[in-house]
């Protein structure tokens, strides 16, 4: 029989310190997706002004997603050695540098070298932040797990929306694509400043990370069910940002309307991601919730491709609510299926390393299917399969059990 998770003493020494840490967690989440959406928002302008070759566009749009899977497994080791707060501070500093580098000119060379270098730095930094946030929430906000999980996952969705919605106005105001990209370093730098007291307070408290002994999540069936749940949700999640607008345009919807539909769908993602974790922690188990939101996301994708266009707002709304809730409950599984923050960070590294590494294939598969068939019908079939598999593994992951640890 599962036993209640042990709650370690919270690191902050006062309620004010706990609130401050919570604000920092949300603000970190608010910076974890701008690198993806800001580049795509002005991609035609960058390509025209900088003369980007075709191969570089593919690399610059896929590298950050791939790096989420490459660097995520390193986060638990770094957190054990240096402490999660210090690693998070370093990750945000690296993210700030990467965002700034993307907008710098390189005399005597084209735009590609610094764009690529900045993108690689951002991908590595975001991978570390993705893994560390759930473990910090597990450790310090066990008494407000649903609320904090909802807030930081909503902030991550909002980050993508802000990058997509504000980068082009920044380009119009400045007249420079470099400035429009580099401006996103400012909010990241602000978070670096805010995280310094958090890291110093943890260091002054003299707390040490727990020893790395115990069972590995890589040998746990529960951990693998959660990880596969993450894989299939990630396949749909990244495909929304990359392909929803082209799917709508392919169905005869004009560009302005398609952009508005995508924006509303992302806003509904934020709604789903805010409330789903709160509901998840109140349930005895999350089997039904996980399966329902997975089928909502998959069904919304399928109907956006095959359903009557007169109801396109309904289909994309269903997709937005389902995808936002699906992403949030998948991340919430990290805290709900572990007894300690130490195992939470190890599970998070495994889950997001494999999840994002394999999940990034979703966007590539859609592109290949489009190339082979000349339309999105085959992708619609793919999303039906992916949504069903997400529901199956979500049902398994939602059972009331814990990843074993000694």
Characteristics:
406 residues, mainly alpha, globular
Write the layout of secondary structure elements.
Layout: H1 15-29, H2 34-41, H3 43-50, H4 54-71, H5 74-82, H6 84-102, H7 112-140, H8 145-174, H9 177-182, H10 185-205, H11 221-250, H12 255-282, H13 287-306, H14 312-336, H15 341-359, H16 361-373, H17 377-397
Helix pairs in contact: 1-7, 1-8, 1-10, 2-8, 4-7, 4-15, 5-6, 5-7, 5-15, 6-7, 6-10, 7-8, 7-14, 7-15, 8-12, 8-14, 11-12, 11-13, 11-14, 11-15, 11-16, 11-17, 12-14, 13-14, 13-17, 16-17
Task: Please summarize what this structure is.
The chain has 17 helices and no strands.
Task: Estimate the helix proportion, in percent.
Answer: over 70%
Shape: globular
Name the helix and strand elements from N-terminus to C-terminus, one letter apiece: HHHHHHHHHHHHHHHHH
Fraction in beta strands: under 5%
Determine the N-to-C terminus distance: 15 Å
Main β-sheet description = none
Query: Cα-atom Rg, whole angstroms?
Result: 20 Å
Quote the average pLDDT.
86
Put simply, the count of helices is 17
Structural class designation: mainly alpha
> Which parts are unreliable, with pLDDT below 50 for 5 consecutive residues or more?
1-12
**Number of E-state strands:** 0
């Amino acid at each position: 029989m599962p036993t209640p998770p042990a709650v370690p003493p919270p690191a902050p020494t006062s309620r004010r310190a706990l609130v401050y840490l919570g604000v920092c967690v949300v603000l970190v989440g608010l910076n974890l997706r701008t690198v993806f959406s800001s580049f795509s928002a002005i991609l035609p302008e960058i390509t025209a002004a900088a003369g980007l070759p075709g191969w570089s566009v593919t690399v610059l749009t896929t590298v950050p997603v791939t790096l989420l899977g490459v660097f995520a497994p390193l986060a638990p080791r770094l957190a054990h050695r240096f402490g999660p707060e210090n690693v998070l501070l370093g990750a945000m500093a690296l993210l700030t540098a990467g965002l700034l580098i993307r907008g710098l000119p390189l005399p005597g060379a084209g735009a590609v070298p610094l764009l690529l270098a900045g993108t690689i730095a951002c991908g590595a930094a975001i991978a570390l932040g993705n893994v560390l946030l759930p473990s910090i929430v597990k450790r310090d906000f066990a008494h407000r797990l649903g609320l904090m999980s909802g807030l930081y996952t909503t902030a991550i969705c909002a980050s993508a929306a802000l990058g997509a919605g504000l980068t082009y106005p920044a380009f119009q105001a400045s007249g420079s694509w470099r400035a429009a990209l580099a401006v996103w370093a400012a909010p990241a730098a602000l978070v670096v400043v805010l995280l310094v007291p958090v890291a110093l307070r943890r260091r002054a408290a003299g707390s040490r990370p727990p020893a790395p002994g115990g069972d590995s999540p890589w040998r746990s069936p529960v951990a693998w069910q959660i990880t596969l749940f993450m894989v299939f949700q990630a396949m749909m999640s990244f495909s929304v940002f990359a392909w929803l607008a082209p799917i709508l345009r392919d169905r005869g919807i004009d560009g302005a309307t398609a952009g508005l539909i995508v924006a509303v769908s992302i806003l509904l993602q934020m709604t789903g991601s805010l409330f789903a974790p709160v509901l998840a922690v109140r349930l005895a188990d999350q089997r039904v919730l996980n399966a329902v939101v997975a089928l909502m996301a998959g069904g919304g994708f399928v109907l956006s491709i095959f359903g009557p266009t007169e109801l396109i707002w309904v289909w994309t709304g269903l997709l937005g609510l389902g995808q936002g809730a699906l992403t949030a409950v998948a991340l919430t599984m990290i805290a709900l299926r572990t007894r300690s923050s130490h195992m939470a960070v190890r599970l998070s590294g495994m889950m997001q390393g494999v999840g994002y590494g394999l999940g990034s294939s979703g966007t590539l598969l859609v592109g290949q299917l489009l190339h082979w068939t000349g339309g999105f019908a085959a992708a619609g079939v793919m999303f039906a399969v992916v949504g069903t598999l997400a529901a199956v593994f979500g049902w398994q992951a939602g059972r009331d059990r814990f990843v074993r640890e000694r």
